[in-house]
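DATA SHEET
Item: assembly model
Revision: 1
Owner: S.N.
Input lines:
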Amino acid sequence: MTPSRDDLIDFIYAEARMLDEGHFSQWLDLWQPDGIYWMPLDYKQTDPDCITSLLYEDQFMLRLRVERLEGARTFSQKPKSRCHHVIQRPFVDVFEPEENRYQTNTSMHYVETRLDEQFLLALTAVHDLTVVDGALRIANKRVDLLNSDAAFGNIQLLP
Amino acid sequence: MPAYTQENVTDLVQGHRVHRDLYTSPEVYRLETQHLFRNVWMFVGHDSQTPNKGDYFTTQIADQPIIQVRHSDGEIHVLYNRCPHKGTKIAIDREGNTGKFFRCPYHAWSFKTDGCLLAIPLKKGYDGTTLKETENGKGMKAVGAVHNYRGFVFARLADEGISFEEFFGDSLSSIDNMVDRAPEGRMEVAGPPLRYMHKCNWKMLVENQTDTCHPMVAHESSAGTAVKIWDELGNPEPRPAAMQIIAPFMSAYDFFEGMGIRTWPNGHGHTGVQGSIHSDYDSIPGYFDAMTEAYGADMARAILDENRHNTVYFPNIMVKAPLGQLRNFIPMGADKTLVESYVYRPVGAPDALVARSAMYNRMINAPTSIVGHDDLEMYERAQEGLMSEGLEWVNVQRLYQEDEDFDVEAVENGTTERQMRNQFNAWAKFMTPQPSVPNAEAAE
């Protein structure tokens, strides 16, 4: 299967909706087993290893994150947080069917709320996508927060 | 709420209990900024953040805007970030190089990097005035005293008071161990700190650093879930670094009891006297060889076998020597604290070592960290719960003994709340500067 540009764009929208509706386990199934979710701390950070990031997680850590959200003693999720992504039409920056390699660049506003608190993050998400068994999968995802160097309270769900 | 003064505020600390106003009262916070944070030695930054002449770094000590700057003679100076003319903050960037002088962006008064006034435009306008005799005419004000200890820069805001050595005493052994872990005997800051805003009193965070009865409860959701998932996978070995970091948080009470807690005078103390949750990390290839070359095998082993958990330097930082980390709990008000969590690179050590520290920092101390979420939830619930009129006092009685003497070093059961009591004892002591001044003179 060779995806069209629209297929790539629809995938990004579908992922955002999955997170907004709280289907986190289903969201995990979108990932390649060696996929990394990276949220840098430093503006234009290039080194994810020797400089701390906000998030640099493999599938084990993402699974832990998702299972924790449903845990009986996850006190910071009593009551649960909710999130909302508003996304601009993604750019398709890399479209290489012969290499099975695709990359999108998406501007988003991410809103998270719990109890009386609500906050807004502006961000750019870069998805590396690939086709496996006829379906698009996330090979890697990088999220650059516009204000990555600001002091935040808890960011509990997934921008 | 009663009106607090320097004389009666210390009544809020009573042995095994402290009054809730200690955490909630804006007036108590105001007295802390006027007295406590001025009388003690506060962390500023690391000298590797300003490696070259003219390099500066802006921060704050509680509500005081501060600049750490490398002067032309190579020394680090710590100045209030305020123009002596009309108050404008001189440096706004978090870091930079100012060259040979600072220049105020408002009226172009300029200052040498030690703060001395260099020039004023149209200086004649001050002829016949008393500007030179005023404090404003002297330049940017420096803090009372500065001490660079093995790269870590501390300041005492008050002009007079306890000396650096007297204040920290033997507690400096934790900083020594952290820096000794670098084959070249020095550290360098590794990137910007994680910044995490907490809507709670700063003392809650500091107390939590030696609270060993919360991890298996509060962190069951994160560390407990990690252990459960790893179990479901059949406990495959070797455990990845992430599991080595997170699983020990679920250690049982007897593990933490056995770790031990040491307290030093003036509010300092540490968990992990006999090993800690950091003791069983895999060795990093090439690291022991580099340490052996620098120190000899016996000394290298002694340095690396010391695995202190959290060392609290009163009033508001925590150091994790085995991981090269420092957390600065910056008070921003009675119910607001900015947490900055730094990683330092031990110079001469393999990259893999600093990579593990950076992983620990983002896994445990980031606003996106699930472990951090567990803790912040508890602090903010406590901050709200303490508003309850039902009970006035907070209990810190665990393993309490009558007539505890905090002027002597002690090692006790690792679940004691003695270190918290030690901090409150120091809090009461330094809210009034009088007792510390004779000590300082005796030490010098």
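QC remark: The beta strands of chain A are 31-39, 55-57, 82-87, 91-96, 101-114, 117-132, 135-145.
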